[in-house]
Specification:
Number of strands: 6
Largest sheet: 6 strands, mixed
Radius of gyration: 18 Å
Strand content: 15-25%
Structural class: alpha+beta
Helix content: 25-40%
Number of helices: 6
Length: 159
């Protein structure tokens, strides 16, 4: 009898953990939707990374990546924005990780030169970059920095 109860519990746990975050809950930007719709993403690694970001407790709105994929030599890109903390996030899909270092240098040149905190991450073929104001314009620069770092930790770890 105990084993039947135990198997029932395992079944319930398995069915709960298989739930996928709903990417449609991320709101779409009314501008340039054609380029940024998740339904048009063909890279499975990029889609998986976006799903991980969707698990964040931050409300992310889809927007064009702040540097286009073609400029960096990437295959595809996704951009997101959090209005409360003014956080910009971009995910870039490359053929391989060896292309990330040059892309990071280009991205660093495109970011505002002062008053921002930025974070970069390389995970397999995906390059993650996020930045937020660190000048007090969000009301709490330390908390804004913490939010960017929290997003970066969600991204890391699955290659």
């Amino acid at each position: 009898m105990r084993w039947l109860l135990w198997l029932s519990c395992l079944y319930l746990l398995g069915s709960c953990s298989s739930a996928q975050p709903d990417l449609r809950s991320m709101t779409q930007s009314p501008t340039n939707d054609k380029d940024t719709l998740m339904t048009q993403i063909t890279n499975p690694h990029l889609e998986r990374s976006a799903r991980v970001l969707a698990t964040s407790d931050l409300s992310l709105t889809q927007e064009p990546a702040f540097v286009p994929a073609q400029t960096l030599g990437a295959q595809e890109a996704l951009g997101f924005y959090n209005e409360a903390w003014q956080i910009h996030v971009a995910l870039y899909a490359f053929e391989n990780q060896n292309q990330h270092q040059a892309a990071q240098q280009t991205l660093k040149q495109q970011l505002p030169s002062q008053g921002v905190y930025s974070s970069f991450g390389s995970n397999g073929s995906i390059l993650f970059v996020a930045y937020a104001p660190n000048d007090g314009s969000t009301g709490d620069p330390i908390r804004a920095k913490h939010q960017v770092a929290k997003l970066a930790t969600l991204f890391a770890g699955e290659e």
